[in-house]
Amino acid sequence: MKLSTLPALLIALALSVASGKEKPQEVVISGNDTMQFDVKNFEVKAGSKVKLTLKNVGKIPKIAMGHNLVVLKKGITAVAFGQKALGAGASATNALPESLMGDVIAATKLLGPAESETIEFTAPKEAGSYEYVCTFPGHFALMRGTMMVK
To answer: CA 73, 56, 91: angle at the middle one, nearest 5?
Structure first.
């Protein structure tokens, strides 16, 4: 690199940071037929952009073993939310009833075998642990994890 191009690169970097065009942190999580997420914990920077991809790597049909990933607001546990979802009528075709969205930071749709979805959201500004869960009926007992915001 020529020394004369260094100032231009530094200016471009400063402008991209100042304009909020930071590259999102990418997280990829798989769900399988044994009702497990392969990633139980991940860390993000407070207020940063997050690009989360959920992959259903299972083979069992969606109606019997669909998976989603729901990131919950601070203080809401995966188990309590899973029970609340069941009480609100969560089913194999509607695993996340609309009435529960007030407790949700971000969520994927329900995925069948070999399907994936990528969602983008902004991490909370408040540091702490935020749980995530699959809300397909009964999966919340095993399919959960924690997003640590630093």
So the answer is: 60
Report how far residue 91's alpha carbon sits from residue 62's, in angstroms, rounded to the nearest whole number: 12
Q: How do residues 91-128 score in pLDDT, each as one tens digit?
A: 999 999 999 999 999 999 999 999 999 999 999 999 99
* Domain CATH code at residue 131: 2.60.40.420
3-state helix, strand, coil in the chain (%, to 5): 25, 30, 40
Residue 52, SS3 per DSSP? strand
Q: Is residue 119 part of a domain?
A: yes
pTM of the shown model: 0.85
Q: What are phi and psi of 82, to 5 degrees?
A: -60, -40
Q: Which amino acid is at 10?
A: L
C-alpha–C-alpha distance, residues 147 and 45, integer Å: 10
C-alpha angle 37-50-83 in degrees, rounded to nearest 5: 45
Type of residue found at 2: K
Domain count within the chain? 1
What are the backbone angles phi and psi of residue 13, rounded to the nearest 5°?
-65, -45
